[in-house]
Write a structure and sequence with these properties.
Layout lengths: L6 H4 L4 H24 L5 H31 L5 H25 L3 H21 L30 H11 L1
Length: 170
């Protein structure tokens, strides 16, 4: 299953959060594709590349969760505590999967579990909890630090695709 951005379903009204969600969608899709491609591969390189992507995704998720929680706190979003609890649950599940991958490698069962967590959890979580940020979007323009610079005309690919190219090229 592939995550596809839909503004009506996933938009929060905060450009920075939405951009991070889009990056996560790209990263999750690329990671699951890499896992499927590497399934059954005896290549140490394929396993190492997948593990690097998982480690990077874990780091990115932590950064995103902190940003999102700060935004909810700043704007007094009623879903802040539910969001924190959901993030904690996600990180435990993701850590468990990472440990299984380190022990057993990429197996069909791991891919199914990983896909369920990443695709299922993020899709539902963003719609049910993160989208509550729409209720607290300031009527005035967001603070400059909450805005990202406008995209450049040159399309360089997602942050995750650039990372993957860097890993694969090394």
């Amino acid at each position: 299953m592939i995550l596809k951005w839909n503004e009506a379903l996933y938009g929060t009204g905060f450009e920075k959060i939405d951009k991070q969600h889009k990056e996560l969608f790209d990263g999750i899709n690329e990671l699951l594709a890499a896992c499927t491609t590497g399934l059954g591969s005896k290549s140490v390189e394929a396993k190492e590349n997948t593990e690097k992507m998982i480690d990077f995704l874990a780091d990115y998720v932590i950064e995103h969760f902190e940003c999102e929680e700060d935004c909810m706190q700043t704007h007094q979003c009623a879903m802040l505590n539910a969001n924190r609890a959901a993030h904690k649950h996600f990180m435990k599940e993701f850590s468990d999967i990472k440990e299984r991958i380190e022990q057993d490698g990429i197996t069909r069962g791991i891919i199914i579990r990983l896909e369920g967590l990443l695709v299922g959890w993020f899709s539902k979580h963003i719609q049910k909890i993160d989208a509550s940020l729409r209720n607290v979007v300031p009527e005035t323009a967001p603070e400059p630090e909450e805005q990202l610079p406008p995209p450049t005309k040159k399309k360089r690919g997602s942050f995750f695709s650039r990372l993957w190219k860097g890993i694969a090229g090394s």
